[in-house]
């Protein structure tokens, strides 16, 4: 359709449709949403916390009544939560007991290239190990880790290789935001299952992935007290964007995005997250009587004027009243100043949308080549990157490793408030859209990636390398 600027992926392939469990037949709000478990360090020194993680398969109840084979970190689907503190180092030794090579990338982190988890920096299957060092020399941020092994990551991530990494600092800690059991990460994604309840993975299979999982469960419910909660939402889907809203359309407070807190809270009725992006929100349930059931919904249309293909996400149940001493202060942080930019570059994202099975996916006309450096950047330079989605239908997004950037403009309009006014590492681009980003490349030298974070597109080649020299 020519008016397809809002379409979420390439058109559905009729051949691939209607195989597997009908999402409509899955009972909603039957499974309880788990709180993601914290992983404890196995050792600590004055400067460093040491962790061990093993990637291995397990069977878990993802949809009611079935045991699905999933990829896990330490048996957890999705992976556990690492709690890190700004300035304190984290060292993680990863062991790969899966049948395919893996690479662990800490998304949004400022790390040496050797610990960035590049697509060719692989951990051998069947027991290979690698130790990653994360200096955490950056401010608080909602980071996450996931597989990045080239051509494989779309499937290994789909099967479960994602985890949460909360980097905290003093600035965030002293605000008095909801904390502890009132500070809940939500890892939201879609999936598709075969008739026996096993994951069904096909490349670029957007329209058939219509089961929505939160923290590893399909359409779960979560019991809350009538008070404020902080939810750190991670879009860990391969291709699907979500626009989250409460079913009664009531406002909530957006306090942070990919790279941590906004300068000030922003009241909104919805927040849009493309794959890889994060939203940090506060919902105040004190306006609801005990007994209320309230859905968190996805309201993004498939195309202008059409309803979302998947609207239900999760159900909150207000089960009790509780005291609430938490606050959302009017000022959250001071964002780092924007130094003057001295270099400008342009990037164009384009993928084959002539067939249901895209044959190629390019950045600036080229497919990813691990032996090619596409962009050379002088250390400590501030640059402006203009990124365009050159497709007519397919959406993309754009993620840069190493940095947190700022979105200066979207389609020529300056970004002054809302979800794109803070620090970002991933930005959504509908078909035909252009954004202007500013980043300072400092701290580490070496080779890093930038790519579309719709994992299936990255696996097809929409990925490139920069070298900071
Ligand atoms: Cu989460 Cu290279 O990305
Ligand atoms: Cu893409």
From TrEMBL:
Listed InterPro entries: Cu-oxidase-like_N, Cu-oxidase_2nd, Cu-oxidase_C, Cu-oxidase_fam, Cu_oxidase_Cu_BS, Cupredoxin, TAT_signal
Gene Ontology MF terms: copper ion binding; oxidoreductase activity
Superkingdom field: Bacteria
Tagged with keyword Transmembrane helix: no
CDD domains: CuRO_3_CueO_FtsP
Reaction(s) this enzyme catalyzes, per UniProt: 4 Cu(+) + O2 + 4 H(+) = 4 Cu(2+) + 2 H2O
GO biological process, one term: cell division
All residue ranges annotated as the Plastocyanin-like domain in the record: 64-170, 226-287, 358-468
Entry keywords, A to Z: Capsid protein, Cell cycle, Cell division, Metal-binding, Oxidoreductase, Signal, Virion
Name of one Pfam family that matches: Cu-oxidase
EC number, UniProt record: 1.16.3.4
Assembly and oligomerization: Monomer.
Family: Belongs to the multicopper oxidase family.
Protein name: Multicopper oxidase CueO
Provenance organism: Actinacidiphila cocklensis
């Amino acid at each position: 359709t020519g008016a397809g600027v809002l379409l979420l992926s390439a058109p559905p392939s009729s051949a691939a449709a209607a195989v597997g469990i009908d999402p409509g037949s899955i009972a909603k709000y039957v499974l309880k949403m788990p709180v993601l478990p914290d992983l404890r360090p196995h050792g600590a020194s004055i400067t460093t916390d040491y962790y061990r993680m093993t990637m291995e398969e397990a069977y878990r109840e993802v949809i009611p009544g079935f045991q699905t084979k999933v990829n896990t970190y330490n048996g957890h689907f999705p992976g556990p939560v690492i709690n890190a503190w700004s300035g304190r180092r984290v060292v993680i030794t990863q062991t790969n007991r899966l049948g395919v090579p893996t690479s662990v990338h800490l998304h949004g982190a400022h790390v040496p290239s050797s610990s960035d988890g590049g697509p060719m920096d692989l951990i051998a299957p069947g027991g290979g190990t690698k130790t990653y060092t994360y200096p955490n020399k950056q401010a608080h941020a909602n980071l996450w880790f996931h597989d990045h092994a080239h051509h494989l990551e779309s499937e290994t991530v789909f099967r479960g290789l994602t985890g949460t990494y909360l980097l905290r600092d003093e600035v965030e800690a002293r605000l008095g935001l909801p904390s502890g059991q009132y500070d809940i990460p939500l890892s939201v994604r879609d999936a598709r299952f075969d008739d026996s309840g096993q994951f069904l993975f096909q490349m670029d299979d957007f329209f058939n992935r219509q089961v929505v999982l939160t923290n590893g469960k399909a359409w779960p419910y979560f019991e809350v007290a009538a008070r404020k909660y902080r939810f750190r939402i991670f879009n860990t889907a391969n291709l699907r964007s979500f626009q989250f809203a409460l079913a009664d359309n009531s406002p909530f407070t957006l306090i942070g995005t990919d790279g941590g807190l906004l300068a000030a809270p922003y009241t909104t009725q919805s927040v849009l997250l493309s794959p890889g992006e994060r939203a940090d929100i506060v919902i105040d349930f004190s306006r609801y009587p005990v007994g209320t059931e309230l859905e968190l919904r996805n309201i993004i249309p498939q195309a202008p004027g059409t309803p979302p293909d998947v609207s239900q996400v999760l159900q909150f149940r207000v089960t009790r009243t509780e005291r609430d001493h938490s606050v959302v202060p009017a000022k959250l942080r001071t964002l780092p100043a924007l130094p003057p930019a001295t270099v400008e570059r342009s990037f164009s994202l384009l993928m084959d949308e002539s067939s249901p099975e895209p044959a190629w996916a390019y950045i600036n006309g080229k497919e990813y080549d691990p032996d090619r450096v596409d962009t050379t950047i002088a250390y400590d330079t501030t640059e402006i990157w203009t990124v365009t989605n050159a497709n007519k239908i397919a959406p993309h997004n754009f993620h840069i490793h190493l940095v947190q950037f700022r979105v200066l403009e979207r389609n020529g309009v300056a970004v002054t408030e809302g979800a794109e006014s803070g620090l970002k590492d991933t930005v959504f681009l509908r078909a035909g859209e252009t954004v202007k980003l500013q980043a300072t490349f400092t701290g580490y030298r070496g080779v890093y990636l930038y790519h579309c974070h719709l994992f299936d597109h990255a696996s097809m080649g929409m990925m490139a390398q920069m070298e900071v020299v």
